[in-house]
UniProtKB/TrEMBL annotation:
Keyword DNA-binding listed: no
The protein's name: G5 domain-containing protein
Keyword check for Signal: yes
GO biological process: peptidoglycan turnover
Keywords: Signal
């Protein structure tokens, strides 16, 4: 019996091998073609053969995955999609490509185009592809660069009353400076498109050119301050204080010491005719006969006798007001 058993084993193996070649196993394959999904059982060995058996027409207007020459396996899914044309511009060349990919990134994967981190792509990678869409990739490269640059000097004009109007005088000659610029040069598709400045190192400071210039309507105060004015009047000036003889009001009156503008009187406040000098105007009052200048003042008050080119100067005491009396002054309307 043992001898018979060992004699049957080679015979069984031979039958199994023969059956395998004569009756190859069927494989279940899913085919997705457009809106159609087919599940077929096939003994065909390649994707192309399975599609032909299922009467699925293949042309240059179709995209098949896996590839036609791929071997079929049980449970495989074959996708057949209609392709459409797009244009891809990259590395100085334009390529017309037929694809069925859903978005730009998938197209780049299809044609094995690699994007570097600084490269630019338009439209963006996740934009959906459309027929006749144009996709452009701009290669962006950078390189460091150092450059010595001249720093221009500034010209500063100072106005002075020491010169005649329009006359100029150079007080300090200007000279340019120098600096090192540490830059990053930016290239688009190999062409220089711009740069960024990373650091500046000053080698030599620029020296400004300073010019003094005489200007009309400039005056210098007793303290040396330079003032610009737009108009000047010669006026008759008087003086007043807050008391009854000047204002008709005694201390305790609700309007005692209050100006027409609603402010409180103080040194530097003057009364004017608003038809000549508007209230709120800044002034400079200069003596004509060689007396002391009243100086910078503010037109905040009015007076019954102050009409036309007359001005009333406030002093804190009646004695000061009487001592001033009546005299001609120049009233500068300041800018």
């Amino acid at each position: 019996m043992k001898e018979l058993k060992w004699m049957l084993i080679p015979l069984l193996i031979t039958m199994m091998v023969t059956t395998a070649f004569v009756h190859p196993d069927k494989r279940e394959v899913t085919i997705k073609a457009g809106e159609q999904t087919l599940v077929v059982e096939s003994r065909k060995h390649t994707v192309e053969e399975v599609l032909a058996e299922a009467n699925i027409q293949i042309s240059s207007q179709k995209q098949v995955s896996p590839a036609l020459e791929e071997k079929t396996t049980n449970g495989m899914t074959i996708k057949v999609k209609d392709v459409f044309p797009v244009t891809l511009e990259v590395d100085g060349e334009k390529h017309r490509i037929y694809t069925a990919e859903p978005h730009v990134k998938a197209l780049l994967d299809q044609v094995e185009v690699v994007l570097e981190k600084d490269d630019r792509i338009h439209p963006a990678p996740m934009n959906r592809l459309k027929p006749e869409m144009e996709i452009r990739i701009t290669r962006v490269n950078t390189e460091p660069d150092n450059d010595v640059e001249e720093v221009p000097y500034q010209t500063i004009t100072k106005y002075t009353a020491d010169l005649e109007p329009g006359e100029t005088r150079v007080v300090q000659e200007g000279s340019p400076g120098r600096q090192i610029l540490q830059k990053t040069l930016v290239y688009h598709d190999g062409t220089l498109s711009g740069f960024t400045v990373d650091e500046r190192h000053v080698l030599e400071e620029a020296q400004d050119k300073i010019i003094e210039k005489g200007k009309e309507n400039v005056l210098i105060t007793d303290s040396g301050e330079l003032l610009h004015y737009k108009k000047v009047y010669t006026m008759e000036a008087t003086a007043y204080d807050a008391g009854y003889h000047s204002t008709g009001k005694h201390p305790g009156h609700p309007q005692y010491g209050i100006t027409r503008s609603g402010t409180r009187v103080r040194p530097g406040v003057v009364a004017v005719d608003p038809n000549v000098i508007p209230l709120g105007t800044k002034l400079y009052v200069e003596s004509v006969n060689g007396g002391s200048n009243y100086g910078i003042s503010s037109a905040e008050d009015t007076g019954g006798a102050i009409k036309g080119k007359r001005i009333d100067l406030y002093y804190e005491s009646r004695s000061e007001a009487l001592r001033f009396g009546r005299q001609p002054v120049k009233v500068y309307v300041l800018e």
